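FAQ: What does the model actually see?

It sees only this:
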Amino acid sequence: MRLLTVNTGRPKAASCTDAPAGVTGIDKRPADGPVRVADPGPKGTGGSGLAGDSVCDLRHHGGSDQAVYAFAREELDAWERELGRPLANGAFGENLTTGGVDVSGARIGERWRIGAGLVLEVTSGRIPCRTFAGHLGVERWVKRFTQAAAPGAYLRVIEPGEIRAGDPVEIVSRPDHDVTVRMEFLATTTRRDLLPELLAAGHALHPEALRAALKYAGKSAVDS
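And it is asked to produce this:
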């Protein structure tokens, strides 16, 4: 398992974004050298965890629980075949393009060490938005991406560090529950009945997913 590229993006004007300034950082390209990764701070004020990377709409993106976004090269390859066009590393706006890592199958709370020092923890899947669809220019993209249920993973920074292309990715701890990124994504999007099962992941969950699971579980208990 290894890190193929570390991808960063700078603000660019785009008609497909709802960001207040009309710019987006989704167009990410592989960095030439090492990139420092650290906790960016709470959502709403903190952006990307990667130095030199931009998050332009702090209302919906970035912050400690979405500090880093990872996507598997294997999934990009599958989308290349389906869409009939090449997709470079970073094409989905991911910070980390990995090889040999089952990103969407990772468990919530699973921890990865990348390189010598960086430790990340899996928090949730990526929910597709209008900016993502506009960036790719694919018709009905939000629906297609959702149906595929291979969203890639957001991660929080446990131990900061510097990483670069080619670094090994090691799973240093894995919870004993069965709540994967894919399950969390389905529960948050098309399978709301799965929300109570997310509670097994506890506070490792992205706080928004945890609140939704608690709310649904409470409603279900009342209904029953």
